[in-house]
What we know:
The chain has 4 domains: 134 residues, no CATH class; 117 residues, NAD(P)-binding Rossmann-like Domain (Rossmann fold); 288 residues, NAD(P)-binding Rossmann-like Domain (Rossmann fold, 3-Layer(aba) Sandwich), CATH 3.40.50.720; 30 residues, no CATH class. By secondary structure, it is α/β, with parallel strands linked by helices. Helix content is 48%, strand content 13%. Strands 10-9-8-11-12-13-18-22-21 form a 9-stranded mixed sheet, with helices on both faces. A 7-stranded mixed sheet has the order 3-4-2-1-5-6-7, sandwiched between helices. Helix 1 runs antiparallel to helix 2, helix 3 runs antiparallel to helix 4 and helix 14 packs across helix 20.
Amino acid sequence: MKRKFRFEHWMVVAIYLMVYDAIISNLSYAAVLWLRFDCRYKLIPEEYLEAWLGFVPVYTVFCLAVFWYLRLYQSIWRFASYNELARVTMASVITGIFHTVGITLLFIRMPISYYILGMLVQFMGVLGIRFTYRFVLLERERKKVDERDIRARRIMLVGAGAAGQMLLRDISRAKELNEKVCCIIDDNPNKWRRYIDGVPVVGGRDDIAVAVERYGIEKIYVAIPSADAEDKRDILNVCKETGCELKSLPGMYQLAKGEVSVSALKKVDVEDLLGREPIRVNMDEIFAYLQGKVILVTGGGGSIGSELCRQIAKHSPKHLIIFDIYENNAHAIQLELKDSYPNLNLDVLIGSVSDSRRINQVFEKYKPEVVYHAAAHKHVPLMEYSPCESIKNNAVGTYKTAYAAMMNGCKRFVLISTDKAVNPTNVMGASKRLCEMVIQTFDRMIKTGRAGELPQLSLHPESRRQGGEKAKPPADICTDFVAVRFGNVLGSNGSVIPRFKEQIAKGGPVTVTHPDIIRYFMTIPEAVSLVLQAGTYAKGGEIFVLDMGTPMKIDTLARNLIKLSGLRPDVDIQISYTGLRPGEKLYEEKLMLEEGMKTTPNKLIHIGSPIPFDEDQFLGQFRWLMNAAYEGREDIRDMLSAVVTTYHPAGIPEDKPESILSDMEKDSSCDMRRKECGNCV
């Protein structure tokens, strides 16, 4: 159905402006002619009047055509700025030149003042009506704003650069926000005691607390997207001590895209306070390695597994297979990847890595070239109550998956490990150390030509009763088995951060197990990108260790989150200490003391030297431990500690190892560290 035409409001305004422009353009030159002859009509020569009058029709049509072409009737003049001024100037110059040439050639040469002053008067007349309209509207809005200011939330803006100025303008126009910027903070002394759109720049970061008190600030907007992580962290640390709610502009790219606005602001996250730049990896290396390959991700629906799938999907794999025991998680990542990558060759399979027949079926059918083994039970306290399940799923599942990979020509097997495998005090950590030992055993047995001696734990008892025989490994085994070890990741299913946010939203209390508990932290995308790059460095047998920076106290994280929410710890939100959970220790380590450290092309990825152990003895112990786990033995922890000698279920010595001291106390003097560890010479 054809839409019926109707006049919009702007069209009516445009008609009025056209009538005005037609009148003012011609009267401008008439007025100048009148002024030229001492403001006396009778003194004006008749030939000048006839020339002006005769040129009116031609000039009127030309002016309106030029003004229309330069969009002087389509502009929204309440938002007029430099662009509108430039177009009015251009229109006046063009029409002025036309008037000079036209009236001279068609009629008579006029006085010089007529040409010059006529163009200037016309410019002022055309521009004046438009900006007068804008001024009237702004004044009307200002009065409304003054009335709103009494009820408006008082805002401090940190950053007087381009992003800050655009944000300030956006806030002033966003009536629905009911917010008023009262002062601006910037570290550039040249901007102090000056004004931006009527808002004073009152000082630098050292003046934040004083300004908050002076102006009654309730919320702080941080608009310094180009600042480095250390500077941003320092400023945020000052801001959070004020008790004001904090929001931050995400990144400079949004300024380039014209997205700098109130809507681009986000809550300040804990990531902003980690005090380092986001981790960057060589994506070209990853792309070259993963492109065109068949890739299997076990545990692909979990926090790490799903991010592995996301990043792998970006690198054009030939085929991506997601394997997970939990159908809801698997379905969620399946839908996400299909929406984001419609051409991705994707299969999502349900099954358990501890089910040997199922995992063998997957490898035999799809023949994956690269495996990222992320399937594991990871929750420390829960695994303390179900230790046998931790061993069956984590350790035995890893063995069965690794064996299937070796038998089916897989090129690379990457185990996702954890820093809890180092000197573990819990079953989960000990089971992950078992996984690392499995990977090292496979590597050593293959390299020494003894792969055929690896027991096929995947052979079911009923198969043995039917006379089933162990399959022989291929003659040209080429599987590289490696592990990647890292600590906690922010935002994972088991992370404390989502839990803290929920507790803050409910009004508290925020529960922390111990005031001194510390952990290493990294974002999930950062950890996964480093895992992928570590996989490109693999030669077989390595335990890659990710540098996760300086560990942080969980208590500090909780207090920062409360402050960033505009609340006060122990006043508005209480912090409750519940005690260490079963199997939990105060700190985690990246390496055991027996391990050395080798470098890689990426300074954030290191290689731990393997701890020697007897493979034959380990394989016998592992089978023994597996049988005990399937039998549900009550003494499984004692048996586990006999295999994983670094496992101490009753806890480990209270003294922190030097690896932690070097991270936590790197800014302290050597003399201070010597007193605490006694290892300095």
